Amino acid sequence: MAFDGVTIASIVQELNDKLLDGRIYKIAQPEKDELLLTIKSAGQQYRLMMSADASLPLIYLTQENKKSPLTAPNFCMLLRKHLQNGRIVGISQPGLERVIQFEVEHLDEMGDLCRKTLAMELMGKHSNIIFYDEQKKILDSIKHVSGMVSSVREVLPGRIYFIPETENKHDFAQNPDIVSQFSYVITSKAMPVYKSIYNSYVGISPILAQEICYRAGVDADAPANALSETQQESLQRTFEAFAESVRGRDFSPCIIYDVQETPIEFGVLPFRIYEDNRKVTYESISEVLHEYYAQRSAKTRIRQKSADLHRIVSTALERNVKKYDIQCRQLKDTEKREKYKVYGELLHTYGYSAEPQAKNITVMNYYTNEELTIPLDPELTAMENAAKYFDKYGKMKRTYEALTEFVKETKAEIDHLESVMNALDIAEKEEDLLQIKEELIQSGYIRYKGSRKKAKITSRPFHFVSSDGYDMYVGRNNLQNDEITFQLAQGNDWWFHAKGAPGSHVVVKSGGKEMPDRTFEEAGRLAAHFSKAKDQDKVEIDYVERKHVKKPGGAKPGFVVYYTNYSMVIDADISGIRQIDDGNNN
């Protein structure tokens, strides 16, 4: 979700609660378009991150520090000259514009008290941090914008600061009366209703417009100028309630996750449009922004770093699937081998009655007590035809025996590669990828010339604790699956796995006690969630005491067998299960 005016309003509320009357203790510029202010307020120290990056403008409170360049940029030096030890006397947002203004009181060179303003504009590629005085004269900005770049507004020292007008948009924060005219405003445009909403009002993003439509029970893509009276009334009531929540600063910062536990959206109002998704609420919008972008960045980084491994596994998987299909077709062709054996035996018994140069012979099949017509090669005698059929039978039998083993081996290879692909999908850190790469090296999919130094493995299995206090471990990859199943688990511990699907082993340490049903269900959810079947509404899970799980000799990592088990059918929702940080978990 982009920084819309409503999100900015929530940030301004938090900054006022924590930074108002605080003193600016340090000013740093770690990146060319980024400021980091250290502020002391009410006995606490805060760091305010302000980034005007064109692709990802951000502002939030953080505990993290960043290394600054040895020589501070000119903009940073100017701010230090004027604002160091200055007191923040005002933090405001003009209406619902994507602008935050910090009014700072400080002493000038003559010791006189004066005020200046640092404005943070979060406007996508036009984002900027602008410093101006009481006469609104720009002293400097983190980005200079000349008339050659923008015909709307120059941002240069000496120019007068102003906020460009949002064309044809109403600001319900500055003009509450406009709320009563909502129906008239949106129905005057010939476009989908949600587009009409965000094109008509300042501070509303497309997703917020869709949320308003969803709450009103109106199709967001319906033509705005064709809404019925009932739909208009419903939208009017919904928008009035929405506007009241924003004006009353009734915010509830949250992050929405998809089924892969990837953050897909954040906001400061409860999203009903994502009612089927997992939602995590936070105390502050700063926590939301930090978590959201940290997790998105981590997911993106892992996808980039695992791209080569994905390609290796995908190529091998595709090759083995093709080979498996060919082998299955060839195996099917060998099904007629028994027919040739019967032909040979019957010709040995009845062949004396065959006419010379006959093309077939009809005999009684003593296996079925039915007549059977056997094709013959007229150039051969009956006994020679029998020998030919026995020869075909022998070849097909040998082919069948060999192919049966080949098919079994190829299927095992496909299952192994699919399990590796699942491990890549759930990898969270670079350490996880190292162990997967090690497994691929051991399996011969990655080869090195000469000797190599074995990578140091620091990745550890996921660790969860059930609602009843039982430790539950989940393998991140096949090597960890073997580890938790055959090293960590004891005989009377419980083992779980998604039935017929690649996935992680899950081990619950029972401690020799009889586990409650709730723990079995939570372990089943973990097995479902960390499997390829997690997108299904329900997943069948096999579970058994660890002592019944065996590993065949020479089997691939993660491959086990068991001949007696219990089963359950359960969903893959693990949102209520507590995860423990063992130094590797996120």
Question: Which key features would you list for this structure?
Answer:
single chain, alpha+beta, 5-stranded antiparallel β-sheet, elongated, 586 residues, 7-stranded antiparallel β-sheet
List the helices and strands and how they pair.
Layout (H helix, E strand, L loop, with lengths): L4 H15 L3 E9 L2 E8 L2 E8 L6 E5 L11 H10 L3 E6 L6 E9 L5 E9 L6 E5 L5 E4 L40 H6 L5 H8 L5 H11 L12 H19 L6 E4 L5 E5 L10 E4 L3 H21 L1 H27 L3 H14 L9 E6 L4 E6 L6 H45 L3 H13 L19 E4 L5 E4 L3 H11 L5 E5 L7 E3 L8 H13 L9 E7 L20 E5 L7 E3 L6
Antiparallel strand pairs: 1-2, 2-3, 3-4, 5-6, 6-7, 7-8, 8-9, 10-11, 10-12, 13-14, 15-16, 15-21, 16-18, 17-18, 17-19, 19-20
Helix pairs in contact: 4-5, 5-6, 8-10, 9-10
Instruction: Give the DSSP E fraction (strand runs of 2 or more residues).
Output: 15-25%
Major β-sheet annotation: 7 strands, antiparallel
The poorly predicted ranges are none
Distance between the termini: 23 Å
Strand order of the main beta sheet, please? 20-19-17-18-16-15-21
Which structural category fits the helices and strands?
A: alpha+beta
User: What's the gyration radius in Å?
Assistant: 35 Å
| Mean pLDDT over all positions | 90
Number of contiguous helices: 13
- Level of helix content? 25-40%
Extended strand count? 21
Taken from the alpha-carbon principal axes, the silhouette is elongated
